[in-house]
Amino acid sequence: MVAQTLAFSIFCFFLISALSGQQQGVEGLGKGEVKFFVFGDSYADTGNNRIALASSWKFPYGITFPGKPAGRFSDGRVSTDFIAGYLRMKTPIPYRWRKQLAGRVKYGLNFAYGGTGVFDTQAPYPNMTTQIDFLQQLIKDSVYTKSDLETSLAFVSASGNDYANYIAMNGSTAGFPTFISNVVSQLTVNLRRIHSLGVRKIAVGSLPPLGCLPANTATSSFQQCEQTQNALVNLHNQLLLQAVTNLNNQTHSTSFFILDIHDAFWTVFNQTQAAGGPKFENPLQPCCVGVSAAFSCGSVDENGVKKYTLCSNPKSMFFWDSLHPTQEGWRALYSTPAFQNSLKQLWQN
Questions:
Q1: What is the pLDDT of residue 349?
Q2: Considering 30, 94, 177, 232, which has the largest number of Cβ atoms within 10 A of its Cβ?
Q3: DSSP 3-state helix, strand, coil percentages of the chain (rounded to 5)?
């Protein structure tokens, strides 16, 4: 009985932590309670990944917000929170909590899982196709109606896990252009499918400059981006722009829209964001980093000894770990004039 009570208490602790950010807003446009659906990876995940497996449920993740690990791959809020806050929507709850918090489903759902991609990756979580299957099943189960979908917004995050998995499996970027074309083609299929389910406003993030992630700048002491990967990122984004343009032409609409995360990253890296916005001494250096290549942020050894170092002030850093921005980093990205204009155009179209 004691064990059951303890297990329930731990469940409640994590559930409350995962949902602590629901009422937090950024600067909004006031569209009311429109449903918000999210698909993708760790840049958008707010807690779908399993507590026992994911680093996002380990200290020091979540130390800035909500003050403890809550399933977000950051020290605090992530992309989904800032988009929802900017548009004055509620951050949608993770899909995994839909039964425990059925009353929140009316605001939408977040289907994103950290580590996943357009195709299968090494992460033990559903890829984007399966995530869309989850929404389709909810429609069949009458959780959402046609009118619900027609007045909703979807955000699709594909931030590079397919490409990281490709390199891990093949050992190099040889053959990347063909694979990039395959990724964008499948991403296009996914966007069209979300539209076919009834969603009429679909935002897809451009690919960030992967060569500038700390995982790729560590060899230069976080001073220089890896240019080969960035060139391949440019190819992805060019193909994505073509795909979105074609989708709008084919549907005779402006339903599909690119949120230019790529240019927002460069604006922050070049320290040219709006006056009064966050500045970072070295935007390529992470706050939390493993003591060696064998360890990552949040790692401990068999005795519980920390195997990572942590900066003194996450607000002074753009990157949280080797892949993900800090909460302040995300705030900087969403504070760039170009990105705010993108969101306004999305919502006003």
A1: 62
A2: 94
A3: 45, 10, 45
Q: How far is 282 from 318, CA to CA, in rounded Å?
A: 8
Q: Annotated catalytic, 321?
A: yes
In what order do the strands lie in the sheet containing 108-110?
93-94, 108-110, 36-39, 153-156, 201-205, 256-259
Q: How far is CA 288 from the centre of its chain?
A: 18
pTM score above 0.85: yes
**Residue 86 backbone phi and psi in degrees, to 5:** -60, -35
Dump strand ranges (E) for the chain.
36-39, 93-94, 108-110, 153-156, 201-205, 256-259, 288-290, 308-310
Q: Report d(CA 231, CA 294) in Å as an integer.
A: 28
Marked catalytic residue, from 17, 42, 206, 335: 42
Residue 42 annotated among the catalytic residues of the structure: yes
Q: How many CA atoms lie within 13 A of 35 on its CB side?
A: 22
pLDDT of residue 342: 78
From 41, 148, 260, 321, active-site residue? 321
**Buried b / exposed e along 43-78 (16+ C-beta atoms within 10 A):** bbbbbbbebeebbbbeebbbbbbbebbbbbbbbbbb
The rounded distance, in Å, linking the Cα atoms of 180 and 182 is 5
Per DSSP bridges, beta strands 93-94 and 308-310 are unpaired
Structural domains of the chain, ranges and CATH numbers in brackets:
26-279+328-348 (3.40.50.1110)
User: Of the residues 17, 195, 324, 335, which is catalytic?
Assistant: 324
- pLDDT value, residue 340: 82
Q: Which amino acid is at 124?
A: P
Of residues 79, 134, 125, the one with CA closest to residue 105: 134
Rounded mean pLDDT for each run of 10 residues along the chain, 349 residues in total: 40 43 43 83 96 89 96 98 91 96 95 97 95 98 93 96 94 90 98 96 96 96 94 97 98 94 93 64 94 91 94 96 97 87 72
Contact (CB, 8 A) for 308 and 288: yes
